[in-house]
UniProtKB/TrEMBL annotation:
<feature type="domain" description="Amidohydrolase-related">
    <location>
        <begin position="50"/>
        <end position="438"/>
    </location>
</feature>
<dbReference type="GO" id="GO:0005829">
    <property type="term" value="C:cytosol"/>
</dbReference>
<dbReference type="InterPro" id="IPR011778">
    <property type="entry name" value="Hydantoinase/dihydroPyrase"/>
</dbReference>
<dbReference type="Pfam" id="PF01979">
    <property type="entry name" value="Amidohydro_1"/>
</dbReference>
<dbReference type="InterPro" id="IPR011059">
    <property type="entry name" value="Metal-dep_hydrolase_composite"/>
</dbReference>
<dbReference type="InterPro" id="IPR032466">
    <property type="entry name" value="Metal_Hydrolase"/>
</dbReference>
<dbReference type="InterPro" id="IPR006680">
    <property type="entry name" value="Amidohydro-rel"/>
</dbReference>
<dbReference type="InterPro" id="IPR050378">
    <property type="entry name" value="Metallo-dep_Hydrolases_sf"/>
</dbReference>
<keyword id="KW-0479">Metal-binding</keyword>
<protein>
    <submittedName>
        <fullName>Dihydropyrimidinase</fullName>
        <ecNumber>3.5.2.2</ecNumber>
    </submittedName>
</protein>
<comment type="similarity">
    <text>Belongs to the metallo-dependent hydrolases superfamily. Hydantoinase/dihydropyrimidinase family.</text>
</comment>
<dbReference type="GO" id="GO:0004157">
    <property type="term" value="F:dihydropyrimidinase activity"/>
</dbReference>
<keyword id="KW-0378">Hydrolase</keyword>
<feature type="modified residue" description="N6-carboxylysine">
    <location>
        <position position="150"/>
    </location>
</feature>
<dbReference type="InterPro" id="IPR018228">
    <property type="entry name" value="DNase_TatD-rel_CS"/>
</dbReference>
<dbReference type="GO" id="GO:0046872">
    <property type="term" value="F:metal ion binding"/>
</dbReference>
Amino acid sequence: MGELLFTGGTVVTAEGSYRADVLVENGSISAVGASIGSDGIETVDASGLMIMPGFIDAHTHMDMPFGGTMTADDWATGTEAAAAGGTTTIIDFALQEEGGTLAGAFDAWTEKARDRAVIDYGFHVAITDLRDDIKAELPSLAAKGVASVKIFMAYKGTPLYTEDDDLFETLQLSKDAGVLVLVHAENGDAIAKLQQQALARGDTAPKFHALTRPEAVEAEATNRAIRLAEVAGAPILVVHVSCAPALEAIHLAHERGQTVYAETCPQYFAFEYEDLAREGFEGAKYVCSPPLRDPSNRPALWNGLKTGDLQIFGSDHCAFNYEGQKELGKDDFTLIPNGIPGAEERAMTLWTLGVREGKLSENQFVAALSTNQARIYGAYPRKGTLAPGADADIVLWDPELSTTATVDNRHGNVDYTPYEGRSFTGGPAAVYVRGNLVYKDGEVVGERGSGRFVERKFTATKGLEVRV
Ligand SMILES: NC(=O)NCCC(=O)O
Ligand SMILES: [Zn+2]
Ligand SMILES: [Zn+2]
């Protein structure tokens, strides 16, 4: 691969914004500056556009078994949807199978991704069964380039659910193994009891998904996980924070100086509890966990993103078709597969509702979507920045691009979009992975199988130091 020069645009990084050209050589950035000579070099005119580091989505579920079915997007369609949203790397959850090993999860996910991904990728391994041999195996993950594991405190009654003793020991072991522990923080016991009681009353509709997972069960589990991490002396990351009381637990940990990272997601800004209460069974299209909340939580979440209590914005893309999949829960909300698509809409949502509304700066936008993700998950500075030496993962962002989401113009493999009819201002005009064009003007042009595995290495920074 030769040279490529991006000219005339405004470079926007987590640190600042300035007019500069960006030179790419052999898939890496080789120079960023005001006057790079263009003689004999292929140029890309970025006039009127922002040149940003490729976005990283460290929360996706591609081709994953869940709720008695498989997610609708595989690694081809799922990464195409992500690319169409400006994402150049995903970090997906490789599930340890019942009776299986961590290496087995890694190998299975490698098989799923290898010939399909159009963008780069890494894996978190979700530990579902902390047997003695798994405890012994855990330290080998770092050598495979896996810098993070996940524990589910929710979904009691499924193989994912993990008790506190195993969460605590995972925190202890991971600290020594140089691996970051991610938690899905909701109180699985309380939810299971509330669900039983709801069904016994005949409350079977989708809205009871939210009513049996109140904010306090998320706040309680968030605080419990953080305190267990404190006892273990380990860093921790709380995924998909949905509400103010859970964020409060994170904020208090930061006040104490504890290393706690935290993510929030587009669905908690774009949708709300009322969407679950839509006519008929429509609410099933909005079932995800933690559930959609009352909009009164949003000011706190915006403030968390602004101050750095929440450092990252991931999609939690976990897509199921309405027909045949969401419908599994027609008579019982507990059987609706949990999750919604959002990889394509993640950045557009944050720009439209956040940057354009004056809640975040363009630099905070890049931090939450790219730089903080790379730093926390151990891919920086290869990913997450436009500095010389970094992979040439580049988004040409059009701050005025006007689009409206419909199921027909989505790039994933889902029979509906929760964003149907939603208009965005701001979106990617073109997206490059290691200097290769993968998306332009509405069309994914990247080759399936061209994505590469990204080896990551976790180095804990104090939670407060990643504040932007
Ligand atoms: N979030 C959700 O509803 N589904 C995906 C699995 C998870 O992240 O909990
Ligand atoms: Zn989760
Ligand atoms: Zn998830």
